[in-house]
Amino acid sequence: MYNEASHHKKTDLDRINITQEPPREEPARQYYFMAKCREHVKAFEQKNGRPPRACVTTFGCPKV
Length: 64
What we know:
The chain is an all-alpha fold. The chain has 2 helices and no strands. 42% of the residues lie in helices and 0% in strands. The longest helix is centred in the middle third of the chain and has 21 residues, at 28-48.
């Protein structure tokens, strides 16, 4: 049986080439953007001396 959780543990995001075009197929496409996001976070940390933060605020009924 395919175990999706163990599949994700085997993916090394540091070995993905983010200088090329993103793949068209899933999940390789998602891994590509996860690796690219890591680079953006590293650049932000170097520039600002801290990790990025986020605040999500929702309004109204969640069933809308």
